[in-house]
Specification:
Protein name: RNA-binding protein
Shape: globular
Number of helices: 12
Strand order of the largest sheet: 17-18-19-22-23-24-26
Helix content: 25-40%
Largest sheet: 7 strands, mixed, barrel
Radius of gyration: 26 Å
Pfam families: DUF402
GO molecular function: hydrolase activity
Strand content: 25-35%
Domain DUF402: 323-457
Distance between the termini: 64 Å
InterPro entries: DUF402, FomD-like_sf, Ntdp-like
CATH architecture of the largest domain: Beta Barrel
CATH topology of the largest domain: FomD barrel-like fold
CATH class of the largest domain: Mainly Beta
Number of domains: 3
Length: 467
């Protein structure tokens, strides 16, 4: 049975679904156990870890042994149906027989890669490990000479000298001494040993057996690779996959969490919105059994809190993995539907997408409607004449503490005297990262945006707010 360790703000929803699907939990925290009705999980270490990313709380990472990681990732597509999806290629920590060029580069799986080696010259053959994979489209692949094999408790590394290292979670000095002694014979063979966090409490016999098995396996791979042609994969490595969650994915996670625990509407988007909003979600979870009509109140709360922001920024996450921050802008007010921002133009140029001159003194009115797939930008001259409208098509807008966040779906709709759909080719370029359901949602949003611009609805709203 596949064992999974779950951490982070989505843990209850993810763990609940995985249990339903027949997975086993491992290394279960006390809080998660209580939320799941006392589930203790397996005492054995996990095959796979699922958690939110340290760099971006909206990203859910799945990482672990390749076969088991793939199974968990495929299962979680049910929980995150609209999230853009990314899988590392080549596999993280996979190893290849390679040959390098004069720039110490090679090509594996059709991808150019940088190679790190103590000595590099054209035509040199070696075994190299993938230490950085291509997850997002703009990522670079990096290999390092050597071979790393991973187990539940230990990693064995050939071709990079010798020594013993420890997970930062292993702090007990007596335990460290035992582990150093256990690895001493292996290290004397010129091999590096890295003890993983699960080694801090495991039986010594289990550690010894895995260490010896991995060393034997690594040595066999090393010898066998001598006769293999360059480009051959010699070790599978790990699975690494990412879901870049959207508002609707978080709402699906809310529904799953609600099966086991009182959960207010928009729980997960509030948890991802900053410390104050996270606290509001915890309070809402306690209130919701007495008042199920909270959705409208959440939107009202968000607009009210953001109206107090002196500076407000828009976090425009791209499908290529990058993030563009727009602003900060000044919040000039709210309506029943919108948060209204204003930015003053300082430079000459051309407004992107509408091909209209940008001049100092122009101003931009931006309408942000929480939970809507549109962010509407109106461009005005210094005298208040509307120059054009640019409508971003996104995942539904999430509101945090003085910021809005969404995933840009690349395609946009503009008005510059006529209504046009632009950047369709950009959507097509990254469409492989989107589910059919997400693509249908984008198509529907584009249709609605065209209709509203053609009717003049958004132009009238913008002019009224700019006056």
């Amino acid at each position: 049975m596949v064992r999974v360790r779950v951490r982070g703000i989505y843990a209850t929803a993810i763990a609940s679904l995985l249990l339903e699907k027949g997975f086993e939990l491992s290394d279960v925290s006390k809080k998660l156990s209580e939320r799941l009705g006392g589930v203790e999980g397996s005492p054995l270490p996990p095959h796979v870890t699922v958690k939110h990313s340290d760099r971006n709380v909206h990203e859910v990472l799945v990482n672990g042994f390749y076969k088991e990681g793939t199974q968990v990732y495929e299962t979680l597509k049910e929980l995150f149906p609209l999230a853009p999806r990314y899988v590392a290629k080549p596999n993280l920590h996979s190893a290849y027989k390679i040959v390098v060029d004069e720039n110490c580069k090679t090509t594996i799986e059709g991808i150019e890669a940088e190679v790190r080696s103590r000595e590099c010259y054209p035509g040199k053959e070696m075994i190299a490990e993938v230490i950085r994979s291509k997850v997002y489209p703009k990522d670079k692949v990096v290999l390092e000479e050597g071979l790393r094999l991973e187990g539940f408790y230990v990693e064995v590394i050939l071709g990079r000298g010798q020594g013993v290292s420890f997970s930062k979670h292993i702090t007990n000095l007596e335990r460290k001494a035992l582990l150093i002694n256990l690895a001493s014979d292996i290290v004397s063979m010129g091999i590096k040993v890295h003890w993983r966090s699960s080694a801090r409490s495991a039986e010594l016999e289990a550690l010894r057996e895995e260490l010896e098995r991995l060393v034997q396996e690594a040595q066999k791979i090393w010898v066998r690779a001598r006769d293999l042609p360059p480009g051959t994969k010699v070790y599978e490595g790990e699975f690494l996959g990412i879901f870049k969650t959207t508002l609707e994915d978080k709402k699906r996670a809310d529904e799953q969490r609600r099966k086991v625990l009182s959960t207010m509407p928009f729980h997960h988007t509030l948890k991802a919105g900053g410390d104050k909003f996270s606290t509001a979600a915890e309070l809402g979870d306690k209130v919701v059994p007495f008042d199920w009509n909270l959705e409208g109140k959440v939107k009202e709360f968000l607009l009210e809190k953001c109206s107090d922001c002196k500076n407000f920024e828009i976090r425009h996450e791209k499908l290529d993995g990058s993030c563009i921050t727009l602003g900060p802008g000044r919040v000039i007010g709210t309506t029943e539907k919108y948060l209204v921002m204003k930015r003053i133009v300082r430079e000459y140029g051309i407004y992107d997408g509408i091909n209209v001159k940008k001049e100092p003194g122009d101003f931009i009115i931006t309408l942000i409607e929480p939970f809507s797939p549109f962010v509407i930008h109106g461009y005005f001259s210094e005298m208040g004449d509307l120059k054009g409208v640019y409508v971003n098509i996104n995942s539904d807008v999430e509101i945090g503490e003085c910021f809005a966040r969404y995933v840009d779906m690349e395609v946009d709709v503009v008005y510059d005297g006529m209504v046009r759909v632009i950047d369709k080719e950009e959507l097509e370029k990254y469409s492989g990262h989107l589910s059919p359901e997400a693509l249908r949602k984008v198509e529907k949003a584009v249709k609605i945006a065209k209709e509203r611009l053609e009717s003049g609805e958004w132009q009238r709203e913008l002019k009224g707010l700019a006056a």
